[in-house]
Amino acid sequence: MPNPTSDPFSAYGRSAAPIRRELIDAREIEDIRLRHALSDIIGGYTKLRRAGRELVGLCPFHPEKSASFHVNDAKGLYHCFGCGANGDAIKFLRETEGLSFMEALRSLGGSDLPVVSEAARVKAAQEDAEARRQAIADAKAFADRCVDPAGTPAEAYAMARGITAPLPPSIRFGMLPAWRDRETGEWSAPRPAMVGLCVNGGGDLVAIQRIFLRPDGSGKAQMRKPKLTLGRIRGASLRLGPVASEVIITEGPEDGLSLMQELPGASVWVALGTALMPEIEMPPEVRSVVIAGQNDAAGHAAVTRAAEALTLRGLSVRTMFPSAEYRDWNDELRGVAI
Ligand SMILES: [Zn+2]
Q1: How far is the CA of 281 from the centre of ligand 1 (A)?
Q2: Residues 6+ apart with CB under 8 A from 123
Q3: Cα–ligand 1 centroid distance for 93 (angstroms)
Q4: Distance (Å, whole) CA 39 – CA 139
Q5: What is the pLDDT of residues 63-81, one digit of tens each?
Q6: Is pLDDT above 80 for 60?
Q7: Domain limits of the chain?
Q8: Cβ-count burial of 89 within 10 angstroms (0-12 exposed, 13-18 middle, 19+ buried)?
Q9: Which of 97, 244, 246, 329 has minimal CB crowding within 10 Å?
Q10: pLDDT given for residue 13 in this prediction
Q11: Residues paired with 196 in a beta bridge
Q12: Residue 78 CA, ligand 1 centroid: distance in Å
């Protein structure tokens, strides 16, 4: 038996000294963690391209064809909306290279990647937070300019898609711009849009989704991307129905409105992108979720990932798909087979 006054570590065959040598100040760790741009580190593993204030690429942790892996240099964090992988430079090196925490720190400390100065780091973090605040403020300002969709191209668009039930209050019509010029800060000319008001888990408006329409609402506008979001979309959803103990989640407003019409009494919430389905914030009243997917390989994969993520969050999860002859719920509503 070891003497109680002796070195407590000696009983386990090691002395305290080497452990003390391994102790590093939290401040020092933070410094090493953010010494290099995370995109420079991850760029050696997967090709990243700029998307707004983040960089995106194919996830190094799961096989995928469309990019759901996001890197935020200002925060020094990565996040995959597909498999849920997330962390910082240290975790990235531990998981890709199988390094221990200390080995990852040493590897970063000795790396010859460009060093990001403390001032540049602080500035990037401030700009990142400011850009997010601005996007939410813009989304709110645009939402204020919208009107009830009755008698507008938004209602005409819904009708053209076979949606005849009254539109919920979260669906609006507005003449809104699509883009803002990065250099001048000026918004593009306004166009008619069906606008979805999107809220976070607490029910606060944090984003809008615009579906740009032809002037008569007979279809979507001829644009490369007629569906655009603005604001803080991570965690947000377009609630077509109220908070309920069970909600159905689906991908697009057209699918969501079709389901609301077909399933009276159900509450359907729309995710702002396939990859964002696992992220939807749920208030505590919601106990179970039905994920309404689409009939294609990508749709099935998205549902599987969302089901796993939402189950881990303690929700009871079921899934459903349109009948095999239809691609999505709106096609099924209109009887338009594949
Ligand atoms: Zn992934």
Answers
A1: 20
A2: none
A3: 15
A4: 28
A5: 888 898 999 998 899 999 8
A6: yes
A7: 8-116, 128-334
A8: buried
A9: 97
A10: 40
A11: 171, 209
A12: 10
Q: Mean pLDDT across the stretch 19-42?
A: 79
Report, as an integer, the average pLDDT of 19-37: 74
Tokens of 90: 């240290």
- Could you give the percent of the chain with pLDDT greater than 70? 93
Quickly tell me which residue has 């798909």 as its tokens.
321
Q: Residue 80, Cβ neighbours under 10 Å: how many?
A: 21
Ligand 1 midpoint to CA 79 (Å): 8
92-123 tens-digit pLDDT: 999 999 999 889 988 888 888 888 888 888 88
| Structure token digits, residue 238 | 């377009």
Q: How far is the CA of 101 from the centre of ligand 1 (A)?
A: 21
Residue 10 pLDDT > 70, yes or no?
Answer: no
Task: Write out the residues surrounding ion ligand 1, Cβ under 5 A.
Answer: 59, 61-62, 80, 82-83, 85
The beta-carbon contacts of 179-187 under 8 Å, at least 24 apart in sequence, are: 180/138
Q: What is the spatial distance between Cα 101 and Cα 26, in angstroms, rounded to a whole number?
A: 13
Query: Mean pLDDT, to the nearest integer, of 186-210?
Result: 96
Token output for 63: 């096989």
Q: What fold is seen in the domain 8-116?
A: DNA Primase; Chain A (3.90.580)
HSE-up (13 A, CA, CB side) for residue 234: 9
CA distance 338 to 20: 66
Q: Tokens representing 242?
A: 């109220």
Q: Indicate if the pLDDT at residue 270 is higher than 90.
A: yes
Q: Which of 238, 266, 252, 276 is nearest to 157 (CA)?
A: 252
Pseudo-torsion of CA 70, 296, 271, 330, nearest 10°? 150
Burial of 294-303, coded b for 16+ CB within 10 Å and e otherwise, reads bbeeebebbb
Q: CB of 167 within 8 A of CB of 149? A: yes
How far, in Å, CA of 292 to CA of 258, rounded? 11
Take residue 75 and report the two structure tokens written for it: 């925060």
